[in-house]
Amino acid sequence: MMNFQNGAVTTTTTQTYAAQKNARFSLTASQIRTIQQRWDETYNALPRIQQQAIDNALAAAISEFRRRNPNIKGTKDLKKQLAKAWTVSMSQVCIDDTMQRQLNIAWVLTLLNVFVATKVIPIHVYQPDPNTEQYLAWDGQHTLVLLWLICTQVFAENPEDFEIPVNVYASHQKSEMRGCFIDLNSEEGKKMLDLFDKIEQMIYGVRVDGSQNPLWVFIEQKQQIVESRGLFLTSKKFGDDHMPGAISRMQEINKMDLESLEWLCDYLVAVGAQHRAVEEKEMVMMAYFFERCRLAKLKLTQQQVFDIAGLAITKWGGSFSPSSRFWAKVSQAYTNWHAAHIVYGNPRCNKEPIHGFPFLAEQIKRDLKGFAKLSSNTSSEFLPESGDLFP
């Protein structure tokens, strides 16, 4: 892990939360889990307060299931109402950690609360080895866990005795199934993949499947940059977006070039993001700034990036939160500019790059060398006066 201290980068060997999260991408082979293991690993990784919330939500969902489905007394009754397809014992179906998105327990409990048997879509599976009776679910993980909960928690039955509907696909190529998973999870009525889910699948596709898809390779290279700086990608839905090193804004990760992402991650390390979560506004502002540097054909050195970080810490404590000193100064500068140049309306400072970037660019151009080519222009005409910058 890199730390920025007095302009130098030092390394420590303590395994951080970010390192634990990034470790899942170190896998180069399938990681097969039974449904029980998938549930337990996801549940056990949560803070105790979230486990208690799930326990309460599960009890309520079971009660609601019984109320809404009085005619379903067990899995034999349930099987009669499920879609007719090739049926296999639930115990034969496993989940590949590297094929599916991370399990969202809250979504499973939502499905349990509104369960209707006729809406259950058969689980999409394939056999990596036709000589075994094991099937791997490449789509339908949440439906599979939902049925498992009904079997084990609502009816307290053995999954080996519960036959569930599956669609068995002939392909044995994992990369082909992964591509289908990404494409099909954009259909109405399904839990669609969000940007984080897609990025995660692309990384797995390269590292586990050996995919050479140019877009997937590009995304995996970005993951290399992020994890090499002791940071990690996540989503608010996993409840760890507050952890040290967490980056939960995928929009910027998706848009940035490799060069500008390296600058951004070096900056984040320098302002201490290995020890706190990356702020949303921080990610928006600095990703925009470094992309503008790249478009201006600036070739920033690591020392220049560290100098920017030092300036940010010195002038506004490195924070871009809406209540920070940075935005207070931008707002005042915008108000002064508006009074001098706009003859109508009230000044309304936008705490986004449209107004924040011109201020940031002018501050850096004034205080640091090597940024003269960086244009401060945005779609706004706002340009702060030198006297309105930080002294």
Short summary of the structure?
The chain has a domain at 29-172.
Order of helical and strand elements: EEHEHHHEEHEEHEHHHEEHHHHHH
- Please count the beta strands (DSSP E, at least 2 residues each): 10
Going across the biggest sheet, name each strand in turn: 3-5-7-6-8-4
Distance between the termini: 34 Å
Helix content: 40-55%
Radius of gyration: 26 Å
Q: What is the structural class?
A: alpha/beta
Average predicted confidence as pLDDT? 89
Beta-strand percentage?
5-15%
Described by strand count, sense and barrel closure, the largest sheet is: 6 strands, mixed
**Global morphology:** elongated
Catalogue the unreliable spans.
Answer: 1-13
Tally of helical runs: 15
What can you see in these coordinates?
The protein has a domain of 144 residues. The chain contains 15 helices and 10 strands. It has 391 residues and is α/β, with parallel strands linked by helices. Strands 3-5-7-6-8-4 form a 6-stranded mixed β-sheet.
Q: How do the helices and strands line up, and which of them pair or pack?
A:
Blueprint: E1 2-5, E2 8-11, H1 17-22, E3 32-33, H2 35-44, H3 48-68, H4 75-81, E4 86-89, E5 93-96, H5 105-113, E6 123-126, E7 135-139, H6 141-154, E8 163-169, H7 174-184, H8 195-207, H9 214-228, E9 232-233, E10 246-247, H10 250-255, H11 258-270, H12 280-295, H13 302-316, H14 325-341, H15 353-367
Parallel strand pairs: 5-7, 6-8, 9-10
Antiparallel strand pairs: 1-2, 3-5, 4-8, 6-7
